[in-house]
Amino acid sequence: MRRTIEDRIALSLIWGGASLTIIFLVWMLWHILANGLSYVDWTFISANYSVTDKENSGIWPMIVSTIYMVILSIAIAAPIGIMTALFLTEYAKPGSKVVKVIRFCTESLAGIPSIIYGLFGMTFFVVTLGLGFSILSGALTLTILILPVIIRTTEEALIAVPLAYREGSYGLGASKIYTIWRVILPSAMPGIITSVILSTGRVIGESAPVFLTAGMVARIPDSVLDSGRTLTVHLYKLTTELYTVHDWNQAYATATVLIVLVLAINLVTKLIGRRLNKATY
Amino acid sequence: MNKFDVKDLNLYYGENHALKGINLPIPERKVTALIGPSGCGKSTLLRTLNRMNDLIENVKITGNVSLDGDDIYQERNVGGLRMKVGMVFQKPNPFPMSIYENVAYGLRAQGIRDKKIIDEAVENALRGAALWDEVSDRLDGHAFGLSGGQQQRLCIARAIAIQPEVILMDEPTSALDPIATHKIEELMEELRKDYTIVIVTHSMNQAKRISDKTAVFWMGELVEHGETAQIFNSPQDERTKGYVNGDFG
Amino acid sequence: MSDVVTVNHAPTAKQSGQVVKALEASANRVDWANHLFKYLFMLSAFIGVFSVGLIGYFLIKEGMPALSYAGVTNFVFGMEWVPPVLFGIAPMIVASLISALGAVVIGVPVALLTAIFLAEVAPKRVADVVRPAVELLAGIPSVVYGFFGLVIIVPMVEKVFNIPAGNTLMAAIIVLAVMILPTVIAISETALRAVPRSYKEGSLALGASPMFTIFKVLLPAARSGILAGVVLGIARAIGETMAIIMVMGNSPAMPRHLLDSARSLTANIAMEMAYATGLHSSALYTTGIVLLVFVMVLNATLLYLNREKAR
């Protein structure tokens, strides 16, 4: 094959572009981990946050708040999302008006910037429903935010379930709900789990809609009706007050914890994806 | 005595007129074969007998299909109909679960929980499908571990576990090798004693070997039906003649 | 008398009496669960619809007072943001648009080259490393991007351009350019892969080089898909909040050049919402409405592009 100068330039541009992407990622990860990893120890993980004793200050309350937020929002959004996907794939007539309306609205939800969710959550959950700045308000807001992800991923998983399973089940006189419960949902489970993990990543990563609804109190919340500060909000808060070396260390360490979480989530998604590909049916 | 009576049946997939004015009696405890070239409507007719076409969008049906004299399209309990009229598909389609659970599926779907009853039904069904001797020691093994032929017999066991009156078979051996095909045909010899069987097949020879009655389809029309021997030896219709001879030729 | 013979005979496929009895008993049961679940699922499906309605309702209801106080023209074209007296968000609109467009100008070429790399050039082993890396880039929280921007990009802008404060439009553009990479890469790669093989083979068979084929045949064929990726990238950049707050300086005045501090629409909401009251609070909802109008325009473009692609 002839190689002209233009070809070589084009090829090196392509390699260069891809390298730039990777370099940026590696640079970011390396910079944060290199400055933060050494500061992440058991004290940092398990200690309460303290403004006065910065050397022994930790992020335990933020970890607890983040866990609350993840569990609560997933616990609300997953059933709703899965049931919506079941309605769309198993019950509704494809292309009917109902499906079009539901799909249009879910897609719209996916396109709304997260800050708008913050605004909405603050007026509706915090003020109108009187839930106050609380983990519950935050989780309900995030529920709507992650709903499109869960619905879409679950729908894809449900559609991928072979028609032959459905035919086999209905051919034996099984009802729709029995078929869904025994055959369709189990077959779609890896996809559904992936959607839940993806949403966990979203919940951990969001910040703007969280501090507008759950507040910023850096204390372990007593209940879901208490305000709490998640890890991302904490990192934001820390960066607004970077004065001493301890402030910097804490910020880097918090960013490190977030990156490790994201890495773990990506890894788990990959593993499930691989198992999904291995399954032969 | 007729098990099914199909009268003036028309079926449309949207604009496509797939079955045109079908009139066909299907006798009880006999094997009826539906034959014809691809896309002639034979599978479509089979799927009207247990209302499997209900799963497809945009299907319109006129006319009348009765089972033991009752119009099945007036029946509200489609699940009950499908229990009476079992189905075996072209490709073996066991569920992704154990052999035991596959056979128990239909019973559990009816809310039967008594383990003694299910155990008994599973064993009977597997014996009935001539699979018991091969799998009795690994009932908890995954169904996907079975060979293609075994999987198809498992699907037959799954169907007869709930005591149907009719078994519909949609080219049940087309995905199988000759030895497995032979085993299924042998099994059908046994099953014909207790069940009404309607089978769609691509193979003239299979239709000749196993069926009592044969119905020939051509582009959505039923061109001829009657005793299998008569259809193959002295067909009345030119199209039947061409199709039957062409395949042997 | 022939009972014994029958038992020893080839097994019959019939079920025994108690199985039949159990089946008959179950056949007449009413399947209420089936109906119950159908309606439960339908109800769930309408929660999303309901949410969209509620979000729209509250945004408009809360934003109306400020809009009727200032008037649409003064609000959208007003240059001064002095709550609770003057509510002009023209500087924020400009900042949001410039930062998003700048991010596209820098980010899209890199993303496109990476997408071409993944779809056409990369050996499988290299692609197996690069693709997860891009996915990782998509999963990193925006505050982490903001933090990185704050500690690396902002000082760098300060040094390179020799200005006192690096919290500028320029810093935001660079950070946003990286943030939109995964979106644009993923969608462009999919679009490139969707181009029929025959196009490529036809070009190669005519003796065209692989590079010529990529740039003159594949890219034009994948055009509408790639544009859809770019539009989504713009949407992501316009909707981004935290990373921008952390690097753009947030001054509500009209930026005069790229090395000026600026405040985006999103930052305006996030920074003042916590303490705003009355008309001021209402003005932030109005800011949200304006933001949403931009996103809706982008979504409409996307819809149009997808229809184009489907043709």
Under CATH, the homologous superfamily of the largest domain in chain A reads MetI-like
Contiguous uncertain segments of 5+ residues of chain A: none
The number of strands of chain A is: 0
Helices of chain B, by number, come to 10
Radius of gyration of chain A: 23 Å
Q: Which fold name corresponds to the CATH topology of chain B?
A: Rossmann fold
Order of helices and strands of chain B: EEEHEEHEHHHHEHEHEEHH
Distance between the termini of chain B: 36 Å
CATH class call of the largest domain in chain A: Mainly Alpha
Instruction: Give the low-pLDDT segments of chain B.
Output: none
Which shape of chain A, going by the Cα principal axes? globular
Notable characteristics:
heterotrimer; B: 249 residues; alpha/beta; Rossmann fold; 6-stranded mixed beta sheet; 4-stranded antiparallel beta sheet; C: 311 residues; mainly alpha; MetI-like fold; two-stranded antiparallel ribbon; 14 helices; disordered N terminus
Question: Topology of this protein?
Answer:
The complex is a heterotrimer of chains A (281), B (249) and C (311).
Chain A: H1 5-36, H2 42-46, H3 60-91, H4 97-111, H5 114-128, H6 135-159, H7 163-171, H8 176-205, H9 208-211, H10 231-239, H11 245-278
Helix pairs in contact in A: 1-11, 3-6, 3-8, 4-6, 5-6, 6-8, 7-8, 8-11, 10-11
Chain B: E1 2-13, E2 16-27, E3 31-35, H1 42-48, E4 59-67, E5 70-71, H2 78-84, E6 85-88, H3 99-109, H4 115-128, H5 132-135, H6 148-160, E7 166-170, H7 178-191, E8 196-200, H8 204-210, E9 213-218, E10 221-227, H9 228-233, H10 238-248
Chain C: H1 3-8, H2 17-27, H3 32-70, H4 72-77, E1 81-82, E2 86-87, H5 90-121, H6 124-139, H7 142-161, H8 169-194, H9 197-205, H10 210-221, H11 223-239, H12 242-247, H13 265-272, H14 278-310
Antiparallel strand pairs in C: 1-2
